[in-house]
């Protein structure tokens, strides 16, 4: 059982092939037509809308909201994108997989750095170099969120979404299957000064892309999730030191930097982002941050802290992600992977998938949507990504539980096969075809590493008794 689990999480491979997931349609209407021609869709029962198109509000314009709004607007939906802070600097490491650049057609000039080397550093400061298996064109993108988010929001506006600088406060739920949602928000677009003006808006459906502290989630009584607190400092370091991080990122593991996560140094345009996170010891986060800085000190001394930031990271999906014609996406839904803390790609992807379900269900905005239309997004999402989340959950439980286990984890990272499988899965979010002999060798090596880790822990326990 363990070896089966290991086999999957080492390469982070999905048991569900990507081909079973939503294949992003070139034009959504074309997909609807093809499905109709094949007789796949049952006749729609929801009423046709006359005199206007379906109105959808997207709350929050991070990667989830920006990509949802763009897809909706392109699909013929009257789209409103409400963002409280247009220059929001989301606290974030900003690492994105290569496939996001292609799938979301991101221009290369919004990517600060292309990381091709990683150092995984163990509790005893053994550093393993990762990245030798990358092909010449492969890299991990490093972005600043204020740049990425603004880019996606502008693109949604160009596609036809109405962008509102406003704070969503709450919404009144519809009283019948065709009644509108009434959104209450503070509009900052007005000329009334900083306080803004209280307004209401009627829409047919709502996408909650308003992050970890989602008010849309509260409005639909979506329930809570466990969360990690992540802390990050942006540090401007001297140019000669920055050269070291030019295309290199570091990950530190150990009880000192976090009891259940990792510390990182990620390179940005003119600074490095140094951070860490924890679920279990939130009040000690500053202590862990200091330890991360100490571990990296010879490479960042002389640096100046230019920004300090912290934010919750969801640990698992909310108990409810959909109610009637309102759905949650991205962090609002709880789509961050354990172990790696990755959420940007999953936010953008879930925003797009949810919007596609609405476009398709409403036949490009001509019909009212129903809960079952939006539910298709959840079905596809869960089928496609549930194994990834599960695997990373197991990985975290096995390898982040003690320093000896972390030493074993870093040791395992030196294996070229592990590196290839892990990078392929991270960069492409696709099934990485395995090699049975290498899989077997890996399972044996992994068990060996874990046995050594346990033996080491027992020895250490004896010493501390
Ligand atoms: C310190 C840290 C480091 C991280 N590093 C990485 C990393 O390297 N790679 C990675 O993939 N993921 C990382 N993550 C996770 C990643 O940041 C999130 O998963 C991602 O931002 C989720 O995107 P989102 O669009 O769902 O939500 P968010 O990015 O949180 O966007 C929500 C948006 O909604 C707006 N909003 C909120 N409430 C309202 C309201 N009431 N009215 C109007 N607007 C509202 C906010 O201003 C914001 O713009 C990190 C997280 C943290 C905290």
UniProtKB/TrEMBL annotation:
It comes from the Eukaryota. It catalyses: phytyl diphosphate + 3 NADP(+) = geranylgeranyl diphosphate + 3 NADPH + 3 H(+). Pathway: Porphyrin-containing compound metabolism; chlorophyll biosynthesis; Cofactor biosynthesis; tocopherol biosynthesis. One of its GO terms (biological process) is photosynthesis. Transmembrane segments: none annotated. One of its GO terms (molecular function) is geranylgeranyl diphosphate reductase activity. Belongs to the geranylgeranyl reductase family. ChlP subfamily. This is Geranylgeranyl diphosphate reductase, chloroplastic. It comes from Oldenlandia corymbosa var. corymbosa.
